[in-house]
Amino acid sequence: MGSWFALIFYIVGATAFRKGPLAGTTEAVRSVETQTGSFQQLTGLSPWVFVALLVAGVGLAVRHHLRREAAMTRFRLPAAKTGLAHVLTEKAWHPFVTAAIIGVLAILAWPLSWATGRESGLGITGPSANIGAFIGTGELELVDWGVLMVTGLLIGSFIAAKASGEFRVRVPDAQTTVRSIIGGLGMGWGAAWAGGCTIGNAMVNTATFSFQGWTALVFMVLGTGLAAKLFILNHRGKGTTPAPTSGSGLTSAEGAAADAGAARPVKLTPIG
Length: 272
Description:
This protein has 272 residues and is mainly alpha-helical.
């Protein structure tokens, strides 16, 4: 429920600063421009030079991470499903696999979006502002490819959570609710002024090697690190109360065992 508060007020903030009464402040901030907007424009080099450097840097980081991961002992719960159901709703995907899939979707978003007349790629802030404006005005022309994509994200997330047995209704306390509302408004405000969110800036604009995207990415990392230090690392286990359900708080496999009334301990299998 805290995430829903954050989402709703993110839409409110994005709408207010993109299409509402505070849109003038966004126009003023966005009017400040540089003569060169990307690394290739500044240096005169081919963008493929920066692609090669990025691929090399990421490749070294991936190799380092995989080597450290191989030295760790990991465990997994016994599978409760088989076949495609196990792969899609139970088996944990490696983060790099997920990242690669998101990258492919980001590439496909360009031709798919342009085919509908929306000359852009993946984006959350603009479509979210359109959702807020549509709710307020009812103008159907606001419902474009981006709005349908954001709607699809919500529907798809719900289907995935239900199918994996991880859907729970968690009710936040008053402090967490207030933080979610303030955080949602701040995200909408920041994304409007920055010209994009973690998708538009940190993924799409970095792919074009724009100064805007890379500057936003650096400060997103710094801001997230500071927020994690203040609100997560110092967390005392307060703020969220799961609704009373059978197997609540367990993984899908553990929840299935609890729902089945299993009394024996679950055996963990080392991943070799």
